[in-house]
Amino acid sequence: MAVTDEAIEKIKAMIVAGELRPGDRLPREADLAERLGLSRNSLREAVKALSLIRVLDVRQGDGTYVTSLAPTLLLDALSFIVDFHRDDTVLEFFEVRRILEPAATALAAQRMSDADIEGLRKVLTSLPDDATIDELVANDLEFHHRIAAGAGNTLLCSLIDSLSGPTTRARIWRGLTQAGAVEKTREQHAAILAAVATHQPELARSWATIHVAGVEEWLHLMIENNVRTIRNTVP
């Protein structure tokens, strides 16, 4: 194991064991390096790495602190990474969404309050009949975020939000090229809302699966058609 990796593991072990808790300030660099049996340089590199993924917060002139370790904070790094996906891997994001979102929607059908359901309804009804593709996609993102938040699990919500960005371009592409895509999206959102509002988790799960799988299937066909076209045009 590389020296820096060893240092990261030792700091992580302190956090997992409860020796360092969210909000705690790390001991002085020299003291912590001696305590962990590390060089100050390897400890410094470990702190830098852990600060990049939002586990530690280095405050100039004040010291280094353990962050809140909240899922939304830690998953910021995931959001940054997935923004660099390639077009041919976007289907993998949809596969993960198809696993996570139906589960979140079923939980939302059990846990969302009347006020949250009304808020979800307002999101759906706020979309004008002559909405642009940009407005549709923004509305879609907000709708799915509220469903994920309604599941009552911050980690699940953060994961779903992190996966939404890489699939945005596919949503726009579908809206521009597939006949009836806008109407189908609105109808399926309305069906999901109805299932959540009447607290029918399995029905909500089914509609969420249909909704995400529909976009996934369309994208798969588009990618296949593009590959076929390229093959047919290459001498």
TrEMBL record:
Residues 1-69 form the HTH gntR-type domain. Keywords: DNA-binding, Transcription, Transcription regulation. The keyword DNA-binding applies. PROSITE patterns: HTH_GNTR. It comes from Paractinoplanes durhamensis. It comes from the Bacteria. This is GntR family transcriptional regulator. InterPro entries: GntR_C, TF_FadR/GntR_C, Tscrpt_reg_HTH_GntR, WH-like_DNA-bd_sf, WH_DNA-bd_sf. It holds the Pfam family GntR. SMART domains: FCD (SM00895), HTH_GNTR (SM00345). The gene is pdhR.
